[in-house]
C-alpha cells in the first residue's frame, strides 16, 4: 500500500477535526441525548405511569446513536491513521495499515446502517404521537397516512441511495475504485439526496400538527406554545443542511472525520429535540379543570365538530396519548354521551312544545 501514499515530503493539507475535539464532542452529545431520554421517560412515568409507542421509537433512536458512538470510538484511531497516511503525515504506512483500515471500513458500514435508522426512528416517534392527536379527526387522517407513506418510502430510499460498495467493499476495492473524483461526486450527491428527503419528510410531518392547530380553538398563548414545541423540528432540518454542506465543502473525497462527526451530531440533536417535546406534560396540571368544562355547541353541527376536536386535542396534548389512558378515554366518552343525551332531550322538549296547541286569551 505504500505505493499509493504520498511520497515523503509531499504533505497535503490536513482537513481533519482534531482528535481531542472529535472525542469531546462525541462524549458531550451522547451525554446530552442520554439525559434527554431519561428526562422524557421520567416525565412520561410521572404523567402516565407507562411508556407509549412514540417512546419506543425514541429509545430505538438512542440505541442506534449509541451503536454509532461505540463504532466511532472503537475505530477513530484507524480513521485518523488513514487520514494521516493520505496527507503524508505518516510515511511509510505501518505494517498493520491494511488491517487497521479494513477495521475502520467495517465500522463505517455499521454507521451507515445505524444513521438512517436513528433519524427515521425519531420521525416515526413524531408520527406516532401525532396520530394520538388526529386519530379521531377524520379530515386529518388521510394527511397522516400520506405523510406516513412518504416517510416509509424515504427511509427505504436513504438506504438505496447509499454507495455500499464504497463503504463495505473491502479496503482493496475502496482504494482502487472509491478515491476518484467521480466517486467523490457520487458520495456528495448521496449526501444531498439523503438531506433532501430527510428535510422534506420533516416538513411533511410538521404540517400535521399545524393543520390541527389551524382547525381548533385554543387560547393564543397555548397556540403559540404548542406551535413552538412543534417547530423544534426545524432545528433538525437546519442540522441536516449544515451536515451536508460541511461534509461536501472540499473537492474530491469528503474528509472522514467530518463525515463521521456530523453524522453523529445530526443523530443526537434529533433525539434531544424529540425528547424536548415531552414538555407538553407541563399542561397536565390543568387537565382536571379543563376536561370537566368541555361542552359541545348545540347551535350548529360545524361548531359542534370544532368543539369535539378541541376536546380531543387538549386531552391528547396534556397527557401525550388519550387512547392509551382508559380513565380519560372513559371520561371523554361519558362527556360525549351526556352531551348527546342533553341534546336529544332538548330536541324532544322543543318538539313537544310545537305539538301543544296555543290558547289565546
From TrEMBL:
It is found in: Membrane. Its main location: membrane. Keywords: Membrane, Transmembrane, Transmembrane helix. Residues 339-361 are annotated as: Disordered. Pfam families: Fung_rhodopsin. It is a multi-pass membrane protein. GO terms for cellular component: membrane. Residues 40-284 form the Rhodopsin domain. It comes from the Eukaryota. Residues 352-361 have a biased composition (Basic and acidic residues). InterPro entries: Rhodopsin_dom_fungi (IPR049326), SAT4-like (IPR052337). The chain crosses the membrane at residues 20-43, 55-76, 114-135, 142-161, 191-212, 224-244, 264-283. The keyword Metal-binding does not apply. Belongs to the SAT4 family. PANTHER family: INTEGRAL MEMBRANE PROTEIN-RELATED (PTHR33048:SF47), PTH11-LIKE INTEGRAL MEMBRANE PROTEIN (AFU_ORTHOLOGUE AFUA_5G11245) (PTHR33048). This is Rhodopsin domain-containing protein.
